[in-house]
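Deviations from the work plan: none for this task. Representative record:
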Amino acid sequence: MNENNMLNLQTYIVDFNKPLKLSSGKVLEKYTLKYETYGTLNKDKSNAVLVCHALSGNHHAAGLYSNEEKPGWWNNMIGPEKPIDTNKLFVVCPNNLGGCHGSSGPSTINPENKKIYGSDFPIITVSDWVDSQKNLMKHLGINRWKFVIGGSLGGMQAFQWSVQYPSMIENCIIIAAAPKLTAQNIAFNEVARQAIMKDPNWCDGNYLENNVSPNQGLALARMLGHITYLSDESMKEKFGRDLKLSKLNYNYDVEFQIESYLRYQGEKFVSGFDANTYLLMTKSLDYFDPIKDMGDMFISNLNITNAKFLVISFTSDWRFPPIRSKEIVKILINNNKRISYSEINADGGHDAFLMNNQDYFDVMKEFIDEACNGI
Amino acid sequence: MNENNMLNLQTYIVDFNKPLKLSSGKVLEKYTLKYETYGTLNKDKSNAVLVCHALSGNHHAAGLYSNEEKPGWWNNMIGPEKPIDTNKLFVVCPNNLGGCHGSSGPSTINPENKKIYGSDFPIITVSDWVDSQKNLMKHLGINRWKFVIGGSLGGMQAFQWSVQYPSMIENCIIIAAAPKLTAQNIAFNEVARQAIMKDPNWCDGNYLENNVSPNQGLALARMLGHITYLSDESMKEKFGRDLKLSKLNYNYDVEFQIESYLRYQGEKFVSGFDANTYLLMTKSLDYFDPIKDMGDMFISNLNITNAKFLVISFTSDWRFPPIRSKEIVKILINNNKRISYSEINADGGHDAFLMNNQDYFDVMKEFIDEACNGI
């Protein structure tokens, strides 16, 4: 709790009653965002940081609740004297629209008919998230983010911010991301979606009102996801071909440690995550392609922003490997943006963006500290 | 038909009544092997080639039946004046034990109780396959294979032959294989198995006697498999981010061409393949580790063989990439075997071993022709 006090962890829920027009053409008449903040907003509101979460993330990025075993998902990055230093910065992390941790999403009540949204909740894009985050920003009286920061799908939101609201962002940190998904990326997402949607308990997305859950499909999706988050190398180091028992079973029970790990990860995940949110998040990933979607506006808006960029990739990440981050770097260089790029030597695969790594933390800290001069 | 005549395609079914002791300790009292042959066995029976199939393959490697749209799975490789030249060689390709195309397997009748085997069919290892293939060899009166050849799981069988029956193999061609699976390889197999076994129609493996089939699980397994068979690059070239319709649906129907392709592959596969066979084949892959399993016998048997080896890998194969094939090469070099290694520049991913590629065919042809001198 002492650490939480120093972090000044606060949790809020805010209702927005102004309709939000979505990329799909649909409109959310009302919606709720749950968010946490860390640190303190300074008087001129010039120290605000937006942290954007990834596929299975949420608003709880840092700090430890008394009922938790593990702290927030980026607790190693956010806090007093950590790279995102809450002694200087005021950090805002919302649960994304469509999420399942307090913001409006498929598992919440549709205010129009008082029923659980289920499959009625519209698909949300990265651009929609940025719009909703801008409304949260206004609600907080902030005119400009000192930083927008995210990894993976969070990095895509940071990138989108720089071209959607180019004058409202001072620094943009894009970690382990890509300007769009490849066919292979989409393929993995599609298998995950099919696993969920073929679960007989999916009920066309309306499982909650039927008091069931497509847990087996969601567990499969998560197991598959995990393979793509870890590197071949880190799996080898962690599990290799180690057996759970001393010899082979010659049946289909768990035999290798990696099987045990994946089954455990799948089962653990379903207790805290909503299958429709998983579907929605994978679609947001698939759809993300700002260069194509925004057309000429992409370049003209990129020309407007004065933001400094930091792009980070990890050597063993095969979901969004360095070559994909460099596509972003190339776009930024070609448009004369101020950009730093760092390729971090790391074994952790895509998940390296969540792990402790001194080089990574040093790069983050140096960029952030330099930008914070004068705060 | 004319081409089949030149190929001298013959199909056989042979029943073995001598018990086969399996790696698991179980015994198959009787079993059937279905196999095809191409070309003609010469008088001294010195021109026989064993072709071993991979996970979803079967005995129908070459030629075209009148009711088929596509010829056998390696028709580009096997035939008159093709690399495996049936004008000179007599090629034998069995459906592996545990398969679902005519040899004894989970979907055939257990002679002991006259019921469909289902989950009662034992798990078969690569070593067991080699034993059964040796019995087929004896049945054919062949004492020594001129070549044992296979890709992927078929390459593992070829490798196993060289250490299990080291004096019965004159040349060994191991394509797109590895000496054992990595944790990541096993992980993909495990997700595929879970997809099948979590399908409510799986019925603990006894779905046939219940007149149902775990088609959705098997389709998912196949979709996932396909991602690992293709390279990121080939998917990009073939599908990219192309949409099936002209614009996004904002729902979970098929949108991207890659989704359409995967769903089609999944659906097509289930009509001709048995889910229990899929489970069994993935286990054979996971278990394969002759260096560990055979202990000292591995090296002493490798020392016995006079076989010449050809090992081939493909640059874009990420299931068993060149670095994995080189592990085999290293073992062979360290044991003073005569070995050629070729890394073929190819975009096709793991499936490149089935595709047309002049470099690949030239390497195969040269090695085979040289070894055939005097036939």
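The two ends of chain B are 27 Å apart (CA to CA).
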